[in-house]
Each structure stands twice: as structure tokens, then as C-alpha cells.
Design brief:
Order of helices and strands: HHHH
Largest sheet: none
Mean pLDDT: 84
Structural class: mainly alpha
Number of helices: 4
Helix content: 55-70%
Number of strands: 0
Distance between the termini: 50 Å
Strand content: under 5%
Radius of gyration: 24 Å
Low-confidence stretches: none
């Protein structure tokens, strides 16, 4: 997958805001202005990143764990009526 320069810069701004990395934010905003992003667009990206940043990291960790957890297989109870053919074993 290849991202265009504009998408990369928006991502850099978002990451810098999320990490409160002021030096990285300064560099990313300068780069954004050079490639033609408007101040309004940059402010919108920063506002969105700040809004996302308000979620506690524990919520993010919990959700990630849930999403990456392997689904549990339910144990099958064999009986004469289950139809799997394994109840004779």
C-alpha cells in the first residue's frame, strides 16, 4: 500500500498530537503548509486528534485485546442426538 504525501503528513500531525510531541508537531505542520494544506485543514486534523486523545489508554488497550483475542471454541457435548457421529467413541 502506498500513501500519498498529504495522507502521510496528516498522519504525522495526528500522531504528534496524540503523543504530545511538540517538536514533531512543529515539523509536521511546517511540512503540511509547504505541501499546500490550509491552516483550517491543519486545525481540523489537530482537533480530531485531540478529541481522540481524550479516550483513556486503558480503554484503547482493552478494546485492542478484545479485537485480537482468538474466539473461544465451545466444547461439544456428544450424545445420541447430536448428529456428529462421534458419540460412539
Amino acid at each position: 500500500m502506498s500513501l500519498d504525501q498529504r495522507t502521510l503528513i496528516v498522519t504525522q500531525i495526528s500522531a504528534a498530537v496524540a503523543c504530545n510531541a511538540l517538536a514533531a508537531l512543529r515539523l509536521a505542520v511546517s511540512e503540511a503548509l509547504k505541501v499546500g494544506l490550509s491552516p483550517e485543514e491543519i486545525k481540523e486534523v489537530v482537533a480530531l486528534a485531540k478529541e481522540i486523545q481524550q479516550q483513556p489508554i486503558s480503554h484503547v488497550s482493552h478494546l485492542t485485546d478484545q479485537l485480537l483475542r482468538e474466539p473461544k471454541k465451545t466444547t461439544h457435548e456428544h450424545s445420541a442426538h447430536c448428529g456428529c457421529g462421534c458419540h460412539h467413541a
